[in-house]
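Go through the following before class.
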Amino acid sequence: MGHDQEKEETPPATQVTVANSAIKDQEEEAWNHQKRTLVAELSQKLITGDLQAKIEAAREVRKVVMKTSGKTRSKFAAAGVIPPLVSMLSCPNLDARQASLLALLNLAVRNERNKVNIVTAGAVPPLVELLKLQNNGLRELATAAMLTLSAAAPNKSAIASSGAAPFLVQILSSGSVQGKVDAVNALHNLSTCKENSVPILDAKAVSPLINLLKECKKYSKFAEKNTALLESLSKSKEGRVAITDTDGGILTLVETVEDGSLLSTQHAVGALLSLCESCREKYRVHILKEGAIPGLLRLTVEGTNIARERARTLLDLLRDTPQEKKLAPSVLEKFMYDIAIRANGTDKVADTAKRLLEDMVQRSMELSKNRIQNRAASRTPAEVPSA
């Protein structure tokens, strides 16, 4: 009793921080050494091992890359794993093909240099062969690989000229949902290649693209890529005929003009305009029959600058009077502005004209809806599609 207890000295906070930092650095260095050793071992197995050793190494490469940082992808590439993995794509053994394909996919993700190196190493021809297989799993992995590799600009020309596009189009009809999405995105990547001397798509792509556009949300990124491809196809005679002949082809484009994002509406109205400009007499009635006017009117107010101009041009073409007699600016806009000036003067002309146009859009939509309902009611039971 009464004796003072010795107080335990607490190390300063800075000392604790320095100690913890030192421990962390040691652990990180140990882990980096372990990774370096693992990269060297796996690369050696892929370069010199027998087939089974290569398959196991390829699977391990995929696992390591998935669990670690992006730098590991570069370290594996520097260790020389890409050429032996590409060689395995041509192996008769399906396990070897799958293992190497998954490893290459993971090496390519978020690494532009690896994407280019994989194509340079000769991956495209065996990937095209994999797209021809009846094995759905390998075929869709090859589609994913084409999508990933085509995202790098230097690769687009080699892939576009490889003959991959027709097989990607087949995926649009027969693949899984993910396979179809990957195929559309890959085809869109390839369609943006400026070095292409000929179009990568032909009219056979129209029907599956229209069917996919029917099913997807019109404002989605997928719809934007899809309509971009359809707009490109509409520039050829065969493409225009295919759009018209495909069940619901023009109607689906009209619905996209009404419900799509800024970009998908721009592409959709571009496709409709291509049709009407190529032969006004042939396509005007088809477009009007599907109730295009409300969506086009709205687009002249709410679309991108390109979409607005296209919508105005198409509205002029859809009028009863011949194209030669069209006025500039659009008769519709001039009519609206004249009314607005008389109603509220020049100060509020823009707001008034916009409000009048929006009211007209609303009334036109109601009339279009009534026409569609009347048309449906007049069909016989045999003509009504089942749910």
